[in-house]
Amino acid sequence: MSSEDFARYQKLVPGVMVRVGIRDEDHTAGVHNQSFDFNDEVLPAAVTLFTQILRSRLRALA
Predict the structure, then answer these.
(1) Which is nearest to 6 in space by CA: 18, 21, 17, 20?
(2) 3-state DSSP assignment of residue 24
C-alpha cells in the first residue's frame, strides 16, 4: 500500500498524502488494468487543490 510506504517518509519529514479521484462514467478501469484511461478532466481541479494547499501552508509559515 502506498500509505505504508508514505508513512516511512513521514518519520523523517512531516507531510500529507492526498489522492485525487479520477473516475466518472467514462473512466471506470482501475490503474493496473489494460483498459485504464487517465481522466484529464480532473487536472484543473487537482492543480487548484494543490495550489490552495501550498498557498495556505506558505501563509502559515510566514
Answers:
(1) 17
(2) strand
